[in-house]
Design a protein that fits this description.
The protein has 270 residues and is an alpha/beta fold. The protein is built from 11 helices and 12 strands. Strands 8-7-6-11-9-12-10 form a 7-stranded parallel β-sheet, sandwiched between helices. Helix 6 links the parallel strand 6 and strand 7. Helix 1 packs across helix 2, helix 6 packs parallel to helix 7 and helix 6 packs parallel to helix 10. The longest helix has 15 residues.
Length: 270
Amino acid sequence: MQRATSRHNPRLKDAARLIASSRDRRKAGRCVLEGEHLIAVYLDRAGVPESLLVVEEMVDVPRIAALAARVPARDVVAVPAALFAQVSTLPADVGALAIVPTPVVSPPPPARFHLLLDDLQDPGNVGTILRTAAAAGVEQVLLSKACAFAWSPKALRAGQGAHFLTTIVEDVDLAPWVARFRAEGGHVAAAVARGGRDLYAAPLPWPLAIAIGNEGTGLSAALTAHADVAVTIPMPGGMESLNAAAAAAVVLFEAVRTRRPGAADRASSR
């Protein structure tokens, strides 16, 4: 294990730069995971970080020591808590941060369950939606070219490890993807704030892709036009719309519900 004594330590400078700059993260193809949980999920699902920075005063804490034991000693750097706090976006008591390569994935062959994110701007929303998608069993999440970066610190924190539990594909031209998906037998449901079919009465056959739009303007007209069905969440309380992350959760788990054994029988008996 190495030890950093100043902010000029190369690995510490590297982490600070990547945390501070979205441009640098995209250019370098690397990102920073903050906290024990995210790093543990990465180790379990993806591999070994390029660098692991641990708070020097916590190196003997069992949860931090267990992380360090899974990374080659040459790539582990002990950092004084005061110095760690100057770099991390979280308090030093999170104990560790890791620098990892950002997965770059070309669109794989279509699967059974997809989520399409069209120009969402808030990284927190993107991360929260990824967490929900992973929980719902979504196999592929496709982000449009103007979506917030899925690997920003805010999105990673909100995702809580979901980034490594589903396939994330960025910079996708969604309308042509939807056209190909439908041509191959897939079905697309576009979530719209108003004017769509009642979500709980709409058909959601699989293979299925659910499209969620921008926080302010919703889905693009081009993407909505390519969908098999536009669905709207009924809101008897009078609100005009839901937060994008909340809407995604409702629609995704309605799709999950319809796939449960006996769901069609229960629906027909209502």
